[in-house]
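#lab-general

N.A. 3:47 PM
ok so I finally got the sequence cleaned up, no stray characters, all 179 residues accounted for. can someone with queue access submit it? mine expired

B.Y. 3:52 PM
send it over

N.A. 3:53 PM
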Amino acid sequence: MTRTDVPSAGSSGASGPAGPSGSSGLREQAARYALLPLRIFLGVTFTYAGLDKLTDSAFLHASGTGSIGEQMHGVRDTSAIPALVDWALLSPVGFGALLAIGELLVGLGVLAGLLTRVAATGGALISLSLWLTVSWQVSPYYYGNDLVYLMAWIPMIMAGAPYLSLDSLIRSRRSRRIA
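B.Y. 4:20 PM
back already:
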């Protein structure tokens, strides 16, 4: 008796164009690399954000137009957690530098695929803190970009960077040494 739910060796399901090297192979490749555009976007965006803050002559100041201090004072009364803003205001320049360096490290880590889950967790924490402080007052909520970034980090935390990454290179070298 022949099963009808499984393609035979001569049919297009087991080999040929629709087999592993055909369209189903393309689907597998697409699924394999599905997070790569998100990884590149988040990596470039956070790298740029960190560099932008570090090279902005006004940002790393306690007061003045465009300074981190002015921004924190501006959102203090509308944030979800004013105590978090108060904490940042204890040393606005130190906080601004820490934020910029954190964004830079997160972005570079995700782009290179090095400690990707750790970097993505850092990105999610930065996005969460910015959502709860800077963009909390945005109405309706979906206009605030920090919440979207927070949600975008979740797949990166879950999956890491299994392909085209230093993480995968390290993992592959370790498995060769063990074998």
